[in-house]
Design goal:
This protein has 255 residues and is α/β, with parallel strands linked by helices. It contains 12 helices and 8 strands. It starts with a strand and ends with a helix. The structure holds phosphoenolpyruvate (PEP). Phosphoenolpyruvate (PEP) binds next to strand 8.
């Protein structure tokens, strides 16, 4: 099983900050144990950071085009990411779904583009507060998974990471309790198992995201079906991000 802590900087940090972050990470990496570290910087820095990142940090994009090469001004393709040494991309983040028109169909096309290029797809899913309060959280997450990833062949599962991010917990300081998160992660694991069999499904990392930080990471990451985290605000400073990595049991046991 892969254990992953991934940072999503969103639209934060200038180039100098990005380089400092990498330096801050480089000095800590020998202590990472069996934790894989990913970071999703803003697009302008991807090629540079991918070539400069220390061994042990995978650089991924926050987005990718749903299209191939061609007349799509402002877009960048999965093949372009690959040619720059970028390892993959986030897809279906709730901010892109809510603000930039990423429909289930567009998200599915982006997943296909990444998988087709041999890259990692970090597939984000999660319900809004309204959906949770209406008792529809599982229906919503299942629908997102069905259109986004459950249709993939079992042969590409090593390119898939699922991130459950309840929208009401993202950037709000309101974290899902470890029991709430584990409940949804177990449901997700079950749906992956129905699609590909229990054995294969158990190899797909399922990350939790939503106001995860050093103070709550350990409790979340100790849940049976939580294999790590996708971290927004607490990924911006190396010391905060490292505090989250420290909460991962795979860091403690194998460092
Ligand atoms: C995110 O945007 O993926 C996220 C989890 O943000 P935050 O940690 O700031 O809630």
């Amino acid at each position: 099983m892969r254990n992953i802590v991934a940072g999503n900087w969103k639209s934060n940090h200038l180039m100098g900050d990005a380089r400092e972050w990498m330096n801050g990470m480089a000095s800590r990496l020998s202590q990472r144990g069996a934790v894989e570290i990913m970071v999703a910087p803003p697009a302008p820095y991807l090629a540079m950071l991918a070539s400069e990142a220390p061994v042990g940090v995978s650089v991924i994009a926050q987005n990718v085009s749903a299209h191939g090469e061609g007349a799509y001004t402002g877009e960048f393709t999965a093949a372009m990411l690959r040619s720059c040494g970028v390892a993959g991309a986030l897809v279906g983040h709730s901010e892109r779904r809510a603000m930039f028109g990423d429909t289930d169909e567009a998200v599915a096309a982006k997943v296909d583009a990444l998988v087709g290029a041999g890259l990692q797809a970090v597939f984000c899913c999660g319900e809004t507060l309204q959906e949770r309060e209406a008792g529809r959280a599982e229906d919503v997450v299942l629908r997102q998974l069905q259109s986004g990833v459950l249709r993939l062949g079992a042969d590409v599962l090593d390119q898939l990471v699922v991130a459950y991010e309840p929208v009401w917990a993202i950037g709000t300081g309101r974290t899902a309790t470890s029991a709430q998160a584990q409940e949804m992660h177990a449901a997700i694991r079950g749906w992956l198992g129905e699609a590909w069999g229990i054995e294969a499904a158990s190899q797909v990392p399922i990350l939790y995201g939503g106001s995860c930080k050093a103070s709550n990471a350990a409790e979340l990451f100790h849940q049976a079906d939580i294999n790590g985290g996708l971290i927004g605000g607490a990924s911006l400073q190396p010391e905060d991000f490292w505090g989250v990595v420290e909460g991962h049991p795979a860091k403690r046991t194998e460092a």
